[in-house]
């Protein structure tokens, strides 16, 4: 109940306890039967079973396990507010301002059709931040971008707490739940793979 | 107009006993953006603005499709004291036995396909009006059934979006599918079938 009143205990019991747990158990059942897949790490498993756009049956459960792990860690009690340090600078560089980013993120979440996810990603090739959406269980890992934050827009994520009021759910996420600390840590790690430019070393 | 539709939908809710309907305000809203979207689409096509036209088309497919699908859905449901769940007699019942073996087999097939839909979508019993055959199909999101075949006419559609069952059944979609047959209005389905296959 740490995320109350923004995400209820009941939602977490169901979302984590039933949906997420269900995915984990299904994944384990698949892996029991398949020796080759069993040896992969979760990240590798997702890439392999995505099969370049023609996903194998294991893909959905594997990706949803990963997606939900990532989502829980994208939130924290007492979340919200603004990002700081390098992440804020990068957001301002790539979106103009934090409020531009927030507006775009919200708009993207609200115009998503059907079930899916909204992401803040670091694009490897373009070396910049971007907002991405994926449907069902797809994740930016499969096209090699680095996710920093995610928001679950499947109805099960918000229906109990907000019914169909997606706007309120998204705004509450941004105001109270999003963990900029997690995003900052992820971006720091991402910079070991993506060169975002020379650090600004002040001249004496 | 939207208000009349709203009143009709509300009347239907009060009648239903064993099934909780989702928030209908979502579906009313679906109509309005579709109407202005159609005007915008005409405009975009007239100006040769391809990317706007495509974006609007997908919005129209979603909102228009959602409206069409839910309109069919409300007609597909009836309270148990008004014939909900009563099996079809007449030509539709006979066609079901012929194509699927029995009503139980049809239900099992539709439930299996409905449960297997990833994410959001619908499962349909339809008649192919050219081939005069019954088929079971699924569609994603709010894609109307015709996206699976221009000659498919929907007879019974079951909404498997999470909003359709979450409040009552949580994540146990199979339980929802098992129970919804108790309120399916086969009279409506038979009417549609007999019109296409007299």
Automatic annotation (TrEMBL), chain A:
Residues 87-183 form the Manganese/iron superoxide dismutase C-terminal domain. Its cofactor is Fe cation. Mn(2+) binds at residues 15, 68, 152, 156. Residues 1-75 form the Manganese/iron superoxide dismutase N-terminal domain. It catalyses: 2 superoxide + 2 H(+) = H2O2 + O2. The keyword Chloroplast applies. It is found in: Plastid, Chloroplast. This is Superoxide dismutase. It comes from Ambrosia artemisiifolia (Common ragweed).
UniProtKB/TrEMBL annotation, chain B:
Pfam families: Sod_Fe_C, Sod_Fe_N. Its cofactor is Mn(2+). Mn(2+) binds at residues 70, 159, 163. InterPro entries: Fe/Mn_Superoxide_Dismutase, Mn/Fe_SOD, Mn/Fe_SOD_BS, Mn/Fe_SOD_C, Mn/Fe_SOD_N, Mn/Fe_SOD_N_sf, SOD_C_sf. Its EC number is 1.15.1.1. Residues 89-191 form the Manganese/iron superoxide dismutase C-terminal domain. GO terms for cellular component: mitochondrial matrix. It catalyses: 2 superoxide + 2 H(+) = H2O2 + O2. PROSITE patterns: SOD_MN (PS00088). It is found in: Mitochondrion matrix. Keywords: Manganese, Metal-binding, Mitochondrion, Oxidoreductase. One of its GO terms (molecular function) is manganese ion binding. Gene3D superfamilies: Fe,Mn superoxide dismutase (SOD) domain (1.10.287.990), Iron/manganese superoxide dismutase, C-terminal domain (3.55.40.20). It is an enzyme of class 1 (oxidoreductase). Its main location: mitochondrion. Residues 37-78 form the Manganese/iron superoxide dismutase N-terminal domain. Belongs to the iron/manganese superoxide dismutase family. Destroys superoxide anion radicals which are normally produced within the cells and which are toxic to biological systems. Homotetramer. This is Superoxide dismutase.
């Amino acid at each position: 109940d740490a995320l109350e009143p923004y995400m209820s205990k009941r939602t977490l019991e169901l979302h984590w306890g039933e949906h997420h747990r269900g995915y984990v158990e299904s994944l384990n059942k698949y892996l029991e039967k398949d020796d080759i897949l069993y040896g992969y790490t979760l990240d590798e498993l997702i890439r392999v079973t995505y099969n370049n756009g023609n996903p194998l049956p294991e893909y959905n459960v594997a990706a949803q396990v990963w997606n939900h792990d990532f989502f829980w860690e994208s939130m924290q009690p007492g979340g919200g507010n603004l990002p700081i340090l390098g992440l804020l600078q990068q957001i301002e560089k790539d979106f103009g301002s934090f409020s531009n980013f927030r507006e775009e993120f919200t708009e993207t979440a609200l115009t998503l059709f059907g079930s899916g996810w909204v992401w803040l990603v670091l694009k490897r090739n373009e070396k910049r931040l971007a907002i991405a959406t994926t449907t069902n269980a797809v994740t930016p890992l499969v096209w090699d971008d680095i996710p920093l934050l995610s928001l679950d827009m499947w109805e099960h994520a918000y229906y109990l707490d907000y019914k169909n009021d997606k706007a309120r759910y998204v705004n509450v996420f941004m105001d109270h739940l999003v963990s900029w600390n997690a995003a900052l840590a992820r971006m720091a790690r991402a910079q070991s793979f993506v060169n975002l430019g020379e650090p600004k070393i002040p001249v004496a | 107009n939207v208000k009349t539709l709203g009143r009709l939908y509300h009347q239907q809710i009060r009648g239903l006993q064993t099934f909780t309907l989702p928030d209908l305000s979502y579906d009313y809203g679906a109509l309005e953006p579709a109407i202005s979207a159609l005007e915008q689409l005409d405009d975009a096509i007239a100006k040769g603005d391809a990317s706007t036209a495509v974006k609007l088309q997908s919005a129209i497919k979603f909102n228009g499709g959602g409206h069409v699908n839910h309109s069919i859905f409300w007609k597909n449901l009836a309270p148990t004291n008004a014939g909900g769940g009563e099996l079809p007699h007449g030509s539709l019942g006979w066609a079901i036995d012929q194509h699927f073996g029995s009503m139980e087999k049809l239900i099992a097939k539709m439930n299996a396909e409905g449960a297997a839909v990833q994410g959001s979508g619908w499962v349909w019993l339809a008649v192919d009006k050219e081939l005069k055959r019954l088929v079971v199909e699924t569609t994603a999101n709010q894609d109307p059934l015709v996206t699976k075949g221009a000659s498919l006419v929907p007879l019974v559609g079951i909404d498997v979006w999470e909003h359709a069952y979450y409040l009552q059944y949580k994540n146990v979609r199979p339980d929802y599918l098992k129970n919804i047959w108790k309120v399916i209005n086969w009279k409506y389905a038979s009417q549609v079938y007999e019109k296409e296959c007299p």
